[in-house]
Design a protein that fits this description.
Order of helices and strands: HHHHHHHHHHHHHHHHHH
Number of helices: 18
Strand content: under 5%
CATH architecture: Up-down Bundle
Largest sheet: none
Low-confidence stretches: 1-5
Number of strands: 0
CATH superfamily: MFS general substrate transporter like domains
CATH topology: Growth Hormone, Chain: A
Radius of gyration: 21 Å
Structural class: mainly alpha
Number of domains: 1
Length: about 450
Amino acid sequence: MTTRLNSPTPAAVGEKRVIGNVLRGSIGNLVEWYDWYAYAAFTTYFAKSFFPTTDTTAAFLGTAAVFAVGFLMRPLGGWMLGRFADRFGRRSALVLSVTLMAGGSLLIAVTPSYHTIGIAAPILLLTARLIQGLSVGGEYSTSATYLSEVATPGKRGFYSSFQYVTLYGGQLLALGLQLILQAILTEQQLTAWGWRIAFVVGTFAALTVMWLRRGMDESESFQREADENQSENKGERGTLRVLAKYPKEIALVVGLTLGGTVGFYTFATYSQKFLENTAHIPRRQVTIVLFCAILVAACLQPVFGRLSDRIGRRPLLLFFGIGGTLLTVPLMTVMGSTRNPVGAFFLVLAGLVIVAGYTSINAIVKAELFPTKIRAIGVGLPYALTVAIFGGTAELIAQALKSAGHETVFFWYVAGCVLVSLIVYGTMRETSKTSELEKR
């Protein structure tokens, strides 16, 4: 009898398959978020193309309003694609979401400026952003569910943290491309037409991922649920009627998300405009500062995620809640008065490290609350509603308060939102111990 000593064990094969699924799912997530954040990264260049004005803050306010309106589509995307994922599979929903993103990016890339087609320009920009909002709303719910379901038990926090690794990665790609374009094009060229390159790149990347995602494995949790129930409950999976049976879980998702989304968008996106428009640090230096800070934050996500597998999710949420409540105002106050790019880097990084207590386990905590038949829409819809109301309006509120001469009020607003979530973190149960993901 011959023994094949070098044959991989079933456990090793299973782990390799998990890693492959996570990587394939994450690549698509990365491209989706690149397309989403390209808008925020290049706002400083195309703002006056769609909202012509001599006042920079007013132009930023116009693009921030479109940014916020785009978030209003995220709940619809969370509902539509979340229901689609719960009924027809995670893979099909992920293919659909990236297809929508490709369409939105292409529309932004080819839309003429206000000087060429007048009011039609901002209307088309808004339309493109609504399509992207629909896509991202569905992408979050489905990718969070997929990564949590395909992860190895005992390592779900680690593997699901890659959702925010790729989310940050998408932002890094957008900022990295911005740095490259800043190096090879003049300021005038970037403002006139160079910013469109970012959306052309996003379009082709999304189309490539659409093709790649067609070869992904379906989640075993979904496949098992579908096989066990087959047609009798297919019409009920992913419906609002079933979701309504989980009011406590819905309230938890809202409470978990509120402070986290405001904190995240404050330090990860608004800080770019804040450092340029308030601290008056040169644009290229601001891009480098944000790129470096986000790179470090991305690397921290799996570290925090793995830590949550060892000590639980709740301690990390409490770390974020306490840190965000007490330190947001001091960090933003000092950041607004700094003129040193190195100091600005450490201030932004400090905010992102605090927020990592939320972002690293954001997906897994919500996925652990809901059973398979309702998980995608349960994770996606209340999350998307909260992000639309609070995350999507964070920059708009900040710009409006600055325009009104009360910028520091925004710092207290962010801290107050985090405080609300801290109360939720202090009263909730440890989800890793009662996880629906481990139930068969």
